[in-house]
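hey so i finally got around to running the thing on that chain from the lab meeting. sorry it took forever, my laptop kept dying and i had to restart like 3 times. anyway pasting the input first so we r on the same page abt which one it is
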Amino acid sequence: MRANKPHELSEQMETFIAERMPISAQWPRLFDETLTTLRVEAGKTSLTLAEALNQLSDPKPEARKSAAEGLNTALAARVPTLALVLNTVVAEKQLEDKWRGFHRPADARHLMNEVDGESVDAMADAVAAAYPKLSHRYYALKARALGKPKLDQWDRNAPLETTRPRTYDWQQGRTLVLDSFRDLGGEFADIASQFFDNPWIDGRAGPGKQSGAYAHPVTANRHPYVFMNWMGERRDVLTLAHELGHGVHQTLAAGQGTLLADTPLTLAETASIFAEGLTFDRLLANAPQAEQRGLLAGRIEDGLNTVVRQIAFHRFEVRFHEERAAGEVPAERIGQLFLEEMGASLGPAVTLNPGYEAWWSYVGHFVHSPFYVYAYAFGDLLVAALMEHRARDPEAFTPLYRELLAGGGTKTYVEALAPFGLDPRDPAFWTIGTRRLERLIDQFEAVV
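ok and heres what got predicted. didnt touch it at all, straight out
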């Protein structure tokens, strides 16, 4: 609240902005309704946007191509409307930023995230510098694994293994996750066990239950709850670990009280991503060699989508906002900016097929939450740096890590990381995480 005070306007102006907000929200509503009614014709099948995007991971190349080409057509028809929406939303934001005294387009988001722009810039630069060692190299290896000279853009998330993946029952998932927590320390496993011993996990999938997963802390004098949909797949094991990581974090931070237990966005995903990483390491260590390639590919692609792709989105967004300050940006130019940033991130092993220039238009974060996307990369790389620190001395790491989680929202991310000797304002901090992903690609290359 103190940090935001210099950017507050008069009571009359704040009232005007608040009363105008439901009207301004009609632009994001138009965006949503335009995409909700979108139908993608893929061969003889008519798909929703979500179904079409899901089909891009289909084992059959013709199914992926059909979905991508259908998306090209469907999005292109709506680009004029969606370009107008994006231009208008950003123009309104720039006007409000000017009155509030924000000097750079992302400054308001940085303040909301309790992060300084210097750290975000250092992270974006470090990730972009690592493109050749990460995405460029991996997609060249994936093209080789698929027997292709280059990947079409719709092959980016194609599965390498077409056999049915291994499944796990609930007890197996519980054992895997708790053993992974136990690697970190007995207290972590004991807290996570309570969620199984008590009815604190709504895990069974069923009719009428919404998709997704989350952990809810309720209030500091109550235990958290976990919600998910268990299907027995490898991804569900990692999701269970992820959400229990939140649950353990929320339990440890509860001592700070309801107001201070809640963490800023920069630290909110720390325990969840960390727990997921520990569980993946256990899955990989116990997997037969025949399964390791698929495991590694899935983990690497998750990393590339979370870090490289989101930073490419962020860089596209920065460039668009800068150009919008000089006037409305034509749809053709928006597409060109998107191709330039995505091409730089994907590298020479991926063909950006005609029609891909319209694919910026379905990314809801650009309209609903400008400059939100970098948060995904921020959280992932921060945890990667912590995991690398733990690898050097696991025993000394645990009490420091517990203190970080138990601190809740009482410290900034810079203060919270200081005991580990880590400084996120230093570009070298972010390369710790990119090197961790690079080593996974080394392992993948050895089994291709």
